[in-house]
Amino acid sequence: MFWDSREVMLLDILPKRESIHTDRYCETLDRLRHAVRQKRPGLLRSGVVLQHDNATPHTAKRTKEWLERYKWDIIPHPAHSPDFHLFGLLKVHLGANKFEDEDKLIGEVCD
């Protein structure tokens, strides 16, 4: 999930049993860049800042090259630190519900 001060910019959900890897993460960054261009084009000129931990897809050479190419900055997110407030609230909200299928879950996350 990627957001700015106004709204969620991109919600990218992996299919079941798929894990994130560098190529997939760079594809997600491409989708994010497209979403930002559509929703807030001025943001691309003023600069995008992502918060990354030290996960392999975040620190991989290809990811770093992607970030340098588009001049996006990184601020660190220490490993094992508490979730950002949004994720804690989202977990509580979603945990109180039972979803019939993945589409309903994704719809609730988007809402």
From TrEMBL:
This protein's name? Histone-lysine N-methyltransferase SETMAR
Q: Which Pfam families match?
A: Transposase_1
Q: Specify the domain of life of the species encoding this protein.
A: Eukaryota
Lineage, top ranks: Eukaryota, Metazoa, Spiralia, Lophotrochozoa, Mollusca
For this chain, one GO molecular function annotation is: nucleic acid binding
